[in-house]
Amino acid sequence: MLKIKNLHANIDGKEILNGINLTVNAGEVHAIMGPNGSGKSTLASVIAGKEEFEVTEGEILMENESIIESSPEERAHKGIFLSFQYPVEIPGVSVTNFVKTAINESRKAQGLEEMGAKEMLKLLREKSELLGIDRKFLSRSLNEGFSGGEKKRNEIFQMAMLEPKLAILDETDSGLDIDALRVVANGVNTLRTKDNAVILITHYQRLLEYIVPDFVHVLHNGKIVKSGTKELALELEEKGYDWLKPESVV
């Protein structure tokens, strides 16, 4: 699904990613943890193609095809989805119109016709019920006046509607109470299949109690310094990050 080789990236000349190597296969969930400033959100942004970051070395392959020169839109059309840590408010654009436009732009890029109104309505109904979203929510302006929990639930709703091959969730658990966390986690778990993959970026082990990862990776100074199974997250919860050194064996 995704292969990252020796990825280096900077912003304004400051190097943040310092040789990332990561392979994510279809059907897998990978959690990326690490202290503040270790490069977690930068990695998510670089995979998604945010243009303020400059890739200076390395490669990103999506289904064995390089996407290093692809625009964010092209990457989205290839099936990459990024759930933001701080979703943007867009007054005047309803949740429904936003996802309809996103779906039809992706379909157009794949040479498909626009989804019909009846089919779109059916999909909206199915996915909103799946995530316990009130239909009135769909007519509200995107993220405008939303609580933290509503914003994160909306991100998962977009993921459900777009059905990406690779979903990157950047600290989706930040600012959520336990009930909202359960709703978001349940949505992610329901959407998991053998054909898609998820990268979870998180500070906290508590999210991984609800979305159990196949692999956990620790980022430090822009490099993955340790990888393991879900037990590694428990170890981090107990010990913190100080015991990990950049030269640790991955």
UniProtKB/TrEMBL annotation:
<keyword id="KW-0547">Nucleotide-binding</keyword>
<dbReference type="InterPro" id="IPR010230">
    <property type="entry name" value="FeS-cluster_ATPase_SufC"/>
</dbReference>
<dbReference type="Pfam" id="PF00005">
    <property type="entry name" value="ABC_tran"/>
</dbReference>
<dbReference type="InterPro" id="IPR003593">
    <property type="entry name" value="AAA+_ATPase"/>
</dbReference>
<keyword id="KW-0067">ATP-binding</keyword>
<feature type="domain" description="ABC transporter">
    <location>
        <begin position="2"/>
        <end position="246"/>
    </location>
</feature>
<dbReference type="GO" id="GO:0016887">
    <property type="term" value="F:ATP hydrolysis activity"/>
</dbReference>
<protein>
    <submittedName>
        <fullName>ABC transporter ATP-binding protein</fullName>
    </submittedName>
</protein>
<dbReference type="GO" id="GO:0005524">
    <property type="term" value="F:ATP binding"/>
</dbReference>
<dbReference type="InterPro" id="IPR027417">
    <property type="entry name" value="P-loop_NTPase"/>
</dbReference>
<dbReference type="InterPro" id="IPR003439">
    <property type="entry name" value="ABC_transporter-like_ATP-bd"/>
</dbReference>
<comment type="similarity">
    <text>Belongs to the ABC transporter superfamily. Ycf16 family.</text>
</comment>
